[in-house]
From TrEMBL:
Protein name, as recorded: histidine kinase
UniProt gene name: dcuS
Membrane topology, from the record: Multi-pass membrane protein
Cited SMART domains: HATPase_c
SUPFAM superfamilies: ATPase domain of HSP90 chaperone/DNA topoisomerase II/histidine kinase, PYP-like sensor domain (PAS domain), Sensory domain-like, Sporulation response regulatory protein Spo0B
Location(s), subcellular: Cell membrane
Domain Histidine kinase: start-end pairs: 409-513
Catalysed reaction equations from the record: ATP + protein L-histidine = ADP + protein N-phospho-L-histidine
Signal peptide: none
InterPro entries: HATPase_C_sf, HATPase_dom, His_kinase_dom, PAS-like_dom_sf, PAS_fold, sCache_3, Sensor-like_sf, Sig_transdc_His_kin-like_C
Entry-linked Pfam families: HATPase_c, PAS, sCache_3_2, SPOB_a
Upper taxonomic lineage: Bacteria, Bacillati, Bacillota, Bacilli, Bacillales
Transmembrane parts of this sequence: 157-179
Top enzyme class: transferase
Enzyme Commission number, as recorded: 2.7.13.3
Length: 519
């Protein structure tokens, strides 16, 4: 494609030059002949020689002009076309051959081609006047047509050489530039770039994250559909493209990210009642900050997702613990079978079944909701594996919930409180946890009490904050989710710490009972 364009350009240039520059060569030669003829015609020697019939001085002068100007001939004729000068002196006094002098004899300058004794020539005819204004003859200056054509051909070849040189230089430059551009665009073809841009645009527009990008001058260069939706919901209307981010969304603070070159992670921004969780990072190109990009989501959506994931992880932990305990029992049964201890095996199975039935019976008697009952069985298994005594208070009672979502939130509350208590008992001599459920008049009280080291008074106000933890990084989510679930159920949460040891969490939430069941 590129070669075809270059070839077309060269052809157009050749056509233009051949129709403009080549004719100028002939015109230049015509002007030269005409200028020489005019100069000779103005000489008094010529006009006086013609008037007085003296040819000898004219012949000497024109011969000198012919040699010095590299022309074919200079012929001076009188009004009867009789030669007064000629390259061949024997032709002096004879009539001019070749024709074309008629216009000049009438006092008009002319240029024409003709063929005489010296061959084909390009001739300039200029009338000669005396000082009184009377015409006495004509000066004819001739240039060899062979020479004219040779000069034209030379100019044509020169033009071709220039165009070819330009083509070679252009091709070389195009190759070098193409290779450089290839490196800049990582070797991709235009079709690949177009496809990549389309895919990039589709990905950015389809993501659930709001995305805004700015250049180094803080001018908005990209706003995806989710960002427009969230900002419209928050009251920021209009198209943000090509606007300065400080005018479009001043609270975002991307100009500070550009200036400092440092990212800002997980900022909470309030916009007309909507809380957005925003992360902003600078974009660097060759070590220089070339722009910045911000991603954000509605914090409410993230909280719902976190709650769902937390509930799933709680169920998964319970199932994993039950499965692990079951496998341990299967290993014991397999070992006793291999050893042939059938009587002892029978006693072990009977005892295990009896304990399990008693445990199931105890839980199902107090916990009427099957989902919560299954969950607690798994937690009991996990606690036994960890060497912890997990007790369900004898006076506990939990009727079946009218709404499955209520049990889901309650499992999140109880599960995270129990997990927190189990972690608190690590390294303790006495490892006991008591769980209690008490329902009365549409209200449910969930209590988790452990024998751990307690919580220092300075930390008691911070433990329900997201990310706060004394156990290292990437922790501090459990009690935060407990608080969020209690708030979602419109309940209240209380923390009671012993003077030296022990911690009690009390969650009281509204609880609708399924059907007509009540206490």
């Amino acid at each position: 494609m590129g070669s075809a364009v270059v070839l077309l350009v060269l052809l157009v240039l050749y056509f233009i030059f051949s129709n403009q520059i080549i004719p100028q060569t002939r015109h230049a030669l015509e002007d030269k002949a005409n200028a020489i003829a005019r100069t000779i015609a103005l000489m008094p020697l010529v006009s006086e020689g013609l008037s007085e019939g003296r040819s000898k001085e004219i012949q000497a002068y024109t011969s000198k002009i012919t040699r010095r100007n590299d022309i074919m001939f200079v012929v001076v004729i009188d009004m009867n076309s009789i030669r007064y000068s000629h390259p061949d002196p024997s032709m002096i006094g004879k009539s001019f051959a070749g024709g074309g002098q008629q216009a000049a004899l009438r006092g008009e300058e002319s240029i024409s081609e003709g063929e005489g004794m010296l061959g084909k020539s390009l001739r300039a005819f200029v009338p000669v006047y005396t000082g009184q204004g009377y015409q006495v003859g004509v000066v004819v200056v001739g240039l060899s047509m062979e020479k004219v054509q040779r000069l034209v051909r030379q100019n044509e070849w020169t033009l071709i050489a220039i165009l070819l040189s330009g083509a070679l230089l252009g091709a070389g430059g195009a190759i070098v530039l193409g290779l450089r551009i290839k490196r800049m665009i990582f070797g991709m073809e235009p079709a690949d770039i177009s496809k990549l841009l389309q895919e990039r645009s589709a990905m950015l527009q389809s993501t659930r994250e709001g995305i805004i990008a700015v250049d180094h001058e803080a001018t908005v260069t990209m706003v995806n559909l989710e960002a427009e939706r969230l900002l419209n919901t928050a009251g920021i209307k209009g198209n943000g493209m090509t606007r300065n981010i400080a005018d479009y969304w001043p609270e975002l603070g991307l100009e500070q990210v550009l200036a400092a070159g440092e990212p800002k992670q997980d900022q909470e921004l309030e916009l007309n009642g909507i809380t957005l969780l925003v992360s902003s990072v600078p974009i660097r190109v060759n070590g220089e900050v070339a722009g910045a990009i911000a991603t954000f989501r509605d914090k409410t959506e993230l909280a719902v997702l976190a709650e769902r994931l937390s509930g799933i992880s709680v169920y998964a932990d319970a199932l994993r613990a039950g499965a692990h305990e079951f496998m341990n029992k299967l290993h014991v049964i397999m070992g006793m079978t291999h050893m042939g201890l059938y009587d002892e095996l029978q006693q072990y199975i009977s005892g295990t079944v009896s304990n399990y039935q008693n445990e199931i019976g105890s839980i199902t008697r107090m916990i009427k909701d099957p989902v919560m009952a299954g969950f607690l069985l798994g937690k009991l298994s996990r606690a036994r594996e960890a060497g912890i005594d997990l007790l369900l208070a004898e006076d506990s009672y939990l009727p079946e919930a009218a709404e499955p979502q209520t049990i889901h939130e309650l499992i999140t509350i109880a599960g995270n409180l129990l997990d927190n208590a189990m972690e608190a008992l690590e390294g303790q001599e006495v490892k006991e946890i008591e769980l209690a459920f008490h329902y009365e008049h549409g209200s449910l009280c969930c209590t988790v009490e452990d024998s751990g080291p307690g919580i220092p008074e300075l930390m008691q106000k911070q433990i329900f904050e997201q990310g706060f933890s004394t156990k290292g990084e990437q922790r501090g989510i459990g009690l935060y989710l407990v608080r969020k679930s209690v708030e979602k159920l419109e309940g209240r949460l209380q923390l009671i710490c012993g003077k030296e040891t022990g911690t009690t969490f009390i969650a009281i939430v509204p609880y609708a009972v399924k059907g007509e069941e009540n206490v």
